[in-house]
Structure prediction request, 912 residues.
Amino acid sequence: MDKVIGYLKENFDNYLNELKEFIAIPSISALADHKKDMRDCAKFVSGQLKNAGMKNVKLIKTAGNPLVYGEWMGAPGKPTVLIYGHYDVQPVDPLDLWDNPPFEATVKDGKIYARGANDNKGQCFVHIKAVEAYMKTEGKLPVNVKFLIEGEEEVGSGNLDKFLKDKENKKLLKCDSVLISDTSMYDEGVPTISYGLRGLCYMEIELTGPNRDLHSGSFGGSVANPINELAKIIAKLQNDKGKILIPEFYKNVRKVTKAEKENIKSLKFSDKKYAKELDVKELFGEAGYSTLERLWARPTLDCNGIVGGFIEKGAKTVLPSKASAKISMRLVPDQDPKTVAKQFTKYVKSIAPKYVKIEVKDLHGGNPFYAPLDDRAVQAGAAATAKAFGKKAVFTREGGSIPIVVEFNKQLKAPVVLMGLGLDTDNIHSPNEHFRLENFEKGLYSSAYFFEEYSK
Amino acid sequence: MDKVIGYLKENFDNYLNELKEFIAIPSISALADHKKDMRDCAKFVSGQLKNAGMKNVKLIKTAGNPLVYGEWMGAPGKPTVLIYGHYDVQPVDPLDLWDNPPFEATVKDGKIYARGANDNKGQCFVHIKAVEAYMKTEGKLPVNVKFLIEGEEEVGSGNLDKFLKDKENKKLLKCDSVLISDTSMYDEGVPTISYGLRGLCYMEIELTGPNRDLHSGSFGGSVANPINELAKIIAKLQNDKGKILIPEFYKNVRKVTKAEKENIKSLKFSDKKYAKELDVKELFGEAGYSTLERLWARPTLDCNGIVGGFIEKGAKTVLPSKASAKISMRLVPDQDPKTVAKQFTKYVKSIAPKYVKIEVKDLHGGNPFYAPLDDRAVQAGAAATAKAFGKKAVFTREGGSIPIVVEFNKQLKAPVVLMGLGLDTDNIHSPNEHFRLENFEKGLYSSAYFFEEYSK
Prediction:
């Protein structure tokens, strides 16, 4: 084991440079004009897996971006872990808020800044490199390992989702547990295993008023304005106490248990520090729940985008024809995204006035997730990160969604270990996304220790 | 007179080509990067005035775009008319909705399509050309004429406004009436003199939530979303019956007189036809008033633009830092834009939650206007257009604003004649703006007849 850790230490700078190459490929899955980048990025990952000593490495075609697969099954009698990650990244706008070009990784103050440095290129890279270190030193791994790195996580993993439902593919991915690093640590230097994730239901509303943009002077007062009407609809989705007003929305929400409330209490979360870090006078959310309960165990509704009319500098007196909004809801056990999408659509159409045409689209969704804490792999994850960071690991839930986690759990009948290496302050999905070099390094050790712990 | 009309007929095609040259200069006053175009356009207009035989033609410097002035004072003892127009145009977005390039005028089905073809290059051009025809045929005009063509009407005429308040300038512009063609005809082929205009108060709201864009999964539920909050604020500006909820807003609104209600009735306006033309199931506006009352005599509130978060195709799970909206109100006598701006700002700030930072800006405004129907120039306008179109002229009010009209009225103590040549269906301020060639031609005659009628 020391040899492996030693090797990881020696090669840290090389690994950092390879991560920069990985980052340099602008693999934005949400934007159609990045198709070629997606393919290039998949090829880069498969090259990495081959170099790490993986067998049967291949790009698996899908209706969208390819999946990258690789395996090493040389530990008969030992458990098999499937390591999942994604090579696609979020869009980069607004570009002018980046201090450095998003795809030219910049190391500063012990952090690497770039789109994907953290989510998820940096976090999934640690496992590839930990495996490589094992193979280059010991020539083998203490457990069997399979890799599955996808390219559509940021747009809902629709094709991987289909892939997992196929009988043959389930055989290919058969495993005893799934290991994923795509979540956050509770705090700087605090090793964290997450046992829950929120689900997602991402909708889009488009309102059409008059059949063309009109002069707001010549027509104002005679016909409904789609922006005003859209605002009224959004205002009716949530009340001033943060309660979502969609009928039946809370019906399947699992109550926060007493044990969880106590666990949350023990984490001594500071609203004040959090508000200060976000530079808001006061936090806001569903009344009657603490901030961590709202983030981990309660559903939410957020407008992710809105646009209509004249949005450049200056003034244009237009009464626009169209206005649209992207609205997503975070879900918790036991809410179902399809059901929520139906509830949302029905309610929004019911409150839309007859003066406008309305279209409601279900863009994508994912189920929430909840894991058993006593599982062998979950415990191995806690022990491994504790060794790497030299501190007892804490168990948390996540506000974010990895829709596919649920599918792994469901289709492969395997528990999922969420070994998060990011921090909520790392600006993932925002300008100046970054990954702490300390977490990159200790992530490499955590992964290596995991294989050892899991083999016991 | 016949010579003049004959000359206008002969030269119609030349005038149309010169209008195309006028249009080809993309003089968008709202966008800073068109500064040079504004100057080029002003020079084009001064060239036209010289060619029309005007004296003392000059560009007058302002803090913004230059004013173009020219005069012919060779009719002692006769009244003096000041002709006002503007050479600046609206922005052209969304570009993809234009059938032809907005600054390459295209003649099709008896209409000329281009930004500014109607508002206001086409409409103010008829007066320059009518004057030219008089000078080239009769060598003189039956009345004294002054031209003042500005370049900031679409952004509020702020600098002309200042210009008019100066004593020397008032001497320069001294006149018995002001003639403006920048409004709409009541219907196709119906000569129209407008006796009222609505005012404008154009505001902008910007909300700031967290200090950066956040991942809506990791942070959703913990902090207020500026888009959701902006929607709630907009929803509180107007109720479902179209009543504006800003305190004191209606305090100075002049009641619609019985005579006006009767005049409106006599115009036999068809809601059904209007709704069909705009392709809306039903019209919407302040309850208790007819469509024409709402358009002409009642104030309104419209969002002209809104933006926040991710607005491209696809999905991005972001909880944005900022959201903003442009909101304008149309005013009627005796509302005052500055007062309304204060009322709006006070109310909006009072309903904004403490969870977000709010900034409210007063972008620009203009007073409403109301003219005496028995005035000599107003009657001359009605007689002239009736001759040109061969039909009795009707009197209407306009929903739109020409803020400067009020200033002319106030500073020059002269009545303003609004001789509209556009139609509400001409897409001014929208893609595929156009001007009917018939109205261009009869507008030329109307202007020529006006000088004759006004000299009587």
